[in-house]
Amino acid sequence: PQNDEVLLKLGYVYNRLGLNSKGETRHKYFTEASTYLSRALSQNLDAAEVHIEFARLLIFMELSNANWDSYKLARRVKEELDYAKKLDEDNPDIYYLLGLWHNRVSEKSLLWRKPLGLGDASKEAALDNLQKAVDMDSDNIEYLLALAKLHFQLKNKSKASELLNKIGKLHPRDEYQKELQDEAEILADKCSS
């Protein structure tokens, strides 16, 4: 296909298939998503949704790996999200993904990050962005779980428990959200112990 909207939809679908998969199948779907989203970007640089999906792809394909070390990748994700934010600041996915980015990148030492232009990543910015995403879409299981995990990581178990309890009352729309809800239940047990 040559239409950027069709390419975006294909990239979106392959991203979701990747999120719902594991191992080599996950990688295969993310590779397909990358192909379609790259083509969509080459046809329309002013489509915020394409930049958002491309950033999601990079975060879940690469930055979520325990041993990531590519500062170029981290900068690319941030650039995609900053540009998407200029195009559509009302999209909660931007803030969700910025929250994930800040959380992940801030785990690297400041001595590693700062000379590479990544010194602004912080847990505080992660909290602010994730909270903004939740404020914009308060029933999104993905957003709520990311915020709950960060509160748990920062030893704020009461806030994490509050968010996890809310997740338990929501109805998942698909298998991925059901997996997230199951993950939230496991984390809720850790909060109560």
N-C termini distance: 52 Å
Q: Can you give the mean pLDDT? A: 93
Q: Which runs of at least 5 residues are low in confidence (pLDDT < 50)?
A: none
The description of the largest β-sheet is: none
Helices, by number, come to 10
Indicate the proportion of strand residues: under 5%
CA gyration radius, whole angstroms: 17 Å
What characteristic shape results from the CA principal axes? globular
Q: Structural class, from secondary structure content?
A: mainly alpha
- Topology as H/E string? HHHHHHHHHH
- The helix content is over 70%
Number of strands: 0
Overall description:
This protein has 193 residues and is an all-alpha fold. 76% of the residues lie in helices and 0% in strands. The chain starts with a helix and ends with a helix.
Name the features.
10 helices, mainly alpha, 193 residues
What is this structure, in a nutshell?
This protein is 76% helix and 0% strand.
Q: How is the topology of this model organized?
A:
Blueprint (H helix, E strand, L loop, with lengths): L3 H16 L3 H21 L4 H16 L7 H17 L4 H14 L4 H4 L9 H14 L4 H13 L3 H13 L5 H18 L1
